[in-house]
Amino acid sequence: MAYGQGSRLPGESASKLGHLAVVQSEWVKTLVTEFETTTSAETDLSGTVWTPFIPREVIPLSRVWAVDGSYVSVRSEGIPAREVAFVKTALLAVDRARLDTIDKENPHPLLLQDVLTGSAVFHATVFPLKNIRTSLGSNYNAVRHIVRDSMRIDEDGAFYETLKWLSYQKWQLEPTHSPAFNCPHCHAAIQDGLPVDADDGICWECKGTVFLTDMLGFHLDMDEASAPDSVASAYMLVMETLMLFTAIRIFWGHSDKALVSETLFIKDGPLTLRGQYSKMVPAIRAFLQFTKDQGRPVHIIGQEKSGAFCDHLGSIARFASPRTKDESMSFAVLSHEYVRREVYRSPDLENPYGMRTNWGEKLFVKLDPSTYMVLNVPTGNYVANVDFPKVPDLIGLDRILATLPSLVSRKYEGALFPVELANGIASMSSYPSARILQRFIER
Ligand SMILES: [Zn+2]
Fold it and tell me: Which of 217, 371, 378, 387 is most exposed, with minimal Cβ within 10 Å?
């Protein structure tokens, strides 16, 4: 909270910041002047290059799959407080033709039910975070086993099969070993990963059993007694990715070879995996490059709803077309150089932007005068050039852009209706109330 204005100190009437001694610095003076200048820019100073797009020249994609997740941590009363986290993810198929018949502002519940019937898949699990010890072993080992079992049990192991499919690059004629990882018992480096298709293995150093799910590295976020709720958020992100790729994997293997390229796959949030989880990124890129080379493009978008890119777009969107309902939509593909210079304002030349973590590149889209969004679209292989990516690098961009207008929600600004539906299914509101969950862990 700000202090109330005093009357003793000089300078307050002249300027909010003028009385600070540090204002003698030229740099600070300039900053203060900028801060106190209320006029906003008249033009887009970031030099964003927008390209008009005419949707009627391209055929929209006919099917849409969307994935979203949420998690909640719950603490018990009493000392020490015990804590668990519930994680829920949902994958949803939407028939775009049927979606077109629905009023996006006030969807009729029965029509909505019709669009959704039999087309949603859920996944849910629970993690011990603090002060919970099962009879089977430490919290550390409990989380390791819960990750493995949760992935293997649901949908007859379909999500787990996708983890194997990505880890061993099973779309290739000759699959590879898994990415390298560290033993969860002795932390020795298992450089060669696990051999093709293995579910588990023996650590060469301590002879302990390691699981394929240990490769993801949830244990690196934990200690023996407790886990932070970042384990829950990381698990949610990994499961969203695995669920989306389960749909992609099944379509890819389908006898109708065209099916996979007729579908739009949407992930809520950026196409990014950070920290230890980024070791899945090279495999995902390799698969998407493979689909590109085979002439069977997979159309994927991630939608960012908050963060630096949304803030930046919010500040420049009004300068871009369309400014009236009659103008066509437009888009801007962001190069690595633009992202560094205009979004992060940090010319970090040592690490090309997103090299380790991103499996999609950034894109601004403005659909009508009041609807604009930040999207991520994959390119397949990553290219470290500062002027990468360019328009042709983004996989299936034309068909993605042609599909977007029919998916725009009329309820939330800049939202996509399938994401909104997936969000409804995966959100907290469908958890039992916190009180019930609390009783559950106090038992
Ligand atoms: Zn070991």
Answer: 387
Q: What residues contact 264, with CB distance under 8 A and at least 6 apart?
A: 61, 63, 64, 65, 299, 300, 301, 400, 403
For position 104, what pLDDT does the model report?
66
Q: How far is ligand 1, taken at its centre, from the CA of residue 292, in Å?
A: 39
Residue 37: C-alpha distances to residues 19, 30, 284 (Å): 17, 11, 47
Residues within 5 Å of ion ligand 1 by Cβ?
183, 185-186, 188, 203, 205-206, 208
Which letter does DSSP use for residue 295 in this model? T
Enumerate long-range contacts of 194-199, CB under 8 Å, 24 or more apart: 194/167, 196/168, 197/164, 197/168, 197/170, 199/164
- pLDDT of the residue at 317: 94
Average pLDDT on 7-19 reads 46
Q: Give the whole-angstrom CA distance, residue 147 versus residue 141.
A: 10
CA 201 to ligand 1 centroid distance, Å: 10
